[in-house]
Amino acid sequence: MGDVLAGFHAAWEFESDSVLIRYERGIRTPKLFQALGERRVPVEAIAGVTLTPGRRGTVVLRVQPREGADPLIEAAAGQLKESCDPYRLVLPAERETLAEYYADELTGMLGAAAHSEPADRYLVAAPEAPLHFKAYDGKASFDGKAVSFRWSWTGASSAKWKAGDQLFPVADLGGVEWRSPEALEGYLRLLPRDAAGATAPAAPQADQDPASVVFGLGYGPVHESLPFAAAVLAAVRDRGPATPVPVPAPRRDPADIAERIRHLGELHQQGLVTDEEFSSKKAQLLAEL
Prior knowledge:
This protein is of the alpha+beta class. Helix content is 27%, strand content 26%. It contains 7 helices and 14 strands. Strands 1-2-3-4 form a 4-stranded antiparallel β-sheet. Strands 8-9-10-11 form a 4-stranded antiparallel β-sheet. α6 (254-269) packs antiparallel against α7. It comes from Streptomyces olivaceus. Residues 12-106, 140-232 form the DUF4429 domain.
């Protein structure tokens, strides 16, 4: 066990080759930190260390993650608020001398190992599957091998209902695009790969794209949707060259199927679904029983 430096919401344990960050659980601790639990950051994943004055009599010790070393930071793409930065340790100002000592120690550990170039692989572990969260227009689930979107009849657009529930094996994905639910139009979009292996262009509107789920007030919060996006990103990068493995669709609850057929009928009556689309989708739903 190495030396431990405790601050607000987290404690950092300095080991010979890494920093183990343990986040507190409490009503004042950001929910993202609580969801992460703890993270081990190898020295080779750190690009630099800073110690700066904070607000209201505090100092902030921060490690700068190396570009491409952490799937969570890559998925966030600069959208995290400062208070939710998992690489900041806020301490009382009276502990500045101690914090300076550890900053110097960590800088010494980096030495020539400090890297400014992007990492060629993720060095910080992603959140582990299975993961799921409720979006405004459906439920997103990830079991480590495939992502599934199951549409909500109260929130999904007719375009998504026409397309049906979606299943995306990791081998078919080229990446993930996450827009914070704290933005006006937050969403999680999966970026499929085309036949040539390149990432296919995404649809312009997430609410019409079957490869996306959209967020809303209380739907897709950061502490649920961001770890989800990071886990998918890590799985995409770690996937092997093998061809996609088919993932069998789970059998559905008959009551759920009946509700979906009823809603499909409403779309048909409103003229949003053609006769052919209604018949085809109804047959598809009945086949899932």
